């Protein structure tokens, strides 16, 4: 089999995966993908017609050319006919795109009724605060940097920002929408396929904009309900002496910025860590959730994510290991 050029392989690499609008896995993403296909067809047809017209015109000029350059002419009737044909093509093409855009907008933003689950997402430099409205009690269940969605159901996202303009984008599931300080924008997500996907801030928001990612898990309604119920419970009690010592150190050094449900940690500056060990990553997708990465993040956050609001807390390696052991047990 012949080898494909590197450029072709790189182009094909963007056609699928966990962060690609060309692999739609939600109702809203399907609408956008259909609109994209329509635009490609219309614009491609116009491009071909323009190139054909240009080639035909050059050919006519060449055929009618004489020794004297000023003898080259094209009849006014031919020019008028070409102008009207071009105008007709443009009108038909633009009208088609307008209708397609209207249909796609209706598919993405039409109201889905009162049964839609409400999730409030607030962008921070550079992480995501996520709050679920408990359908049973009406209270808010908070987590961070990892979004869970039930497959087949509609989730209404209420998007805002705590500092600068961000933009919420999970390309496999839906289009992007800006998150603006002082207001809330609404976006519906209706995933149709289970699996892990990746979201990203799509509006440049500072030094670590590229490291403001979002893990998104689409799962069955039963699995989602079980996950949400677990998130509503308080933090687990430390299971051993090292973790217990880590909890004590955390209460003294970290509680001012973080929440751990069921403890005295009630800080709001940073992410909620009540069940941090259940997440795939830390630091908004920057590092995988492992014991070593937890230790590195605690010891040198500025070296891993320069400019982050997470300060370096002065601790010796033993204390850092204890705090990491405590966080690793928060499931």
Automatic annotation (TrEMBL):
Listed PROSITE patterns: COX2 (PS00078), COX2_CUA (PS50857), CYTC (PS51007), PROKAR_LIPOPROTEIN (PS51257)
Regions crossing the membrane: 33-62, 83-104
GO biological process, one term: ATP synthesis coupled electron transport
The protein's Enzyme Commission number: 7.1.1.9
Residues of the Cytochrome c domain: 241-331
Domain Cytochrome oxidase subunit II copper A binding, chain residue ranges per copy: 114-230
Matches recorded under InterPro entries: CcO_II, CcO_II-like_C, Copper_CuA, Cupredoxin, CuRO_CcO_Caa3_II, Cyt_c-like_dom, Cyt_c-like_dom_sf, Cyt_c_oxidase_su2_TM_sf
Record-linked SUPFAM superfamilies: Cupredoxins, Cytochrome c
EC class (word): translocase
Gene3D superfamilies: 1.10.287.90, Cupredoxins - blue copper proteins (2.60.40.420)
Domain of life: Bacteria
Subcellular locations according to the entry: Membrane
One of the record's GO molecular function terms: heme binding
GO CC annotations, alphabetized: membrane
Lipid bilayer topology: Multi-pass membrane protein
Major site of localization recorded for this protein: membrane
Listed PANTHER family: CYTOCHROME C OXIDASE SUBUNIT 2, CYTOCHROME C OXIDASE, SUBUNIT II
Family to which this protein belongs: Belongs to the cytochrome c oxidase subunit 2 family.
Name of protein: cytochrome-c oxidase
Organism: Sphingomonas aerophila
């Amino acid at each position: 089999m012949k080898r494909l050029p590197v450029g072709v392989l790189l182009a094909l690499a963007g056609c699928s995966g966990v962060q690609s609008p060309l692999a739609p896995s939600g109702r809203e993403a399907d609408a956008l993908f259909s609109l994209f296909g329509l635009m490609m067809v219309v614009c491609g047809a116009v491009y071909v017609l323009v190139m054909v017209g240009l080639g035909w015109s050059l050919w006519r000029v060449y055929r009618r050319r004489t020794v004297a350059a000023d003898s080259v002419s094209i009849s006014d009737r031919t020019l008028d006919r070409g102008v009207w044909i071009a105008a007709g093509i443009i009108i038909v093409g633009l009208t088609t795109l307008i209708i397609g855009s209207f249909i796609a907008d209706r598919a993405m933003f039409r109201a889905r009724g009162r049964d839609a689950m409400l999730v409030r997402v607030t962008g921070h430099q550079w992480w995501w605060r996520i709050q679920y409205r408990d359908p049973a009690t009406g209270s808010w269940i908070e987590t961070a940097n990892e979004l869970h969605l039930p497959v087949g159901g509609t989730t209404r996202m209420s998007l805002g920002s705590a500092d600068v303009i961000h933009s919420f984008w999970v390309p496999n599931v839906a289009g992007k929408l800006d998150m603006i300080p002082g207001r809330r924008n609404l976006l519906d997500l209706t995933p149709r396929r289970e699996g892990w996907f990746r979201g990203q801030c799509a509006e440049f928001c500072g030094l670590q904009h590229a490291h403001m990612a979002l893990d998104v898990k689409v799962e069955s309604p039963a699995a989602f309900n079980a996950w949400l119920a677990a998130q509503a419970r308080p933090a687990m009690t430390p299971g051993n002496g090292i973790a217990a010592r880590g909890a004590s150190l955390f209460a003294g050094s970290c509680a001012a910025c973080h929440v751990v449900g069921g403890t005295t940690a009630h800080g709001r500056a940073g992410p909620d860590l009540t069940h941090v060990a259940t997440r795939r990553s830390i630091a908004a997708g920057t590092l995988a959730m492992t014991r070593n990465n937890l230790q590195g993040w605690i010891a040198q956050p500025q070296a891993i994510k320069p400019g982050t609001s997470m300060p370096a807390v002065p601790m010796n390696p033993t204390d850092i290991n204890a705090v990491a052991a405590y966080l690793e047990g928060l499931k």
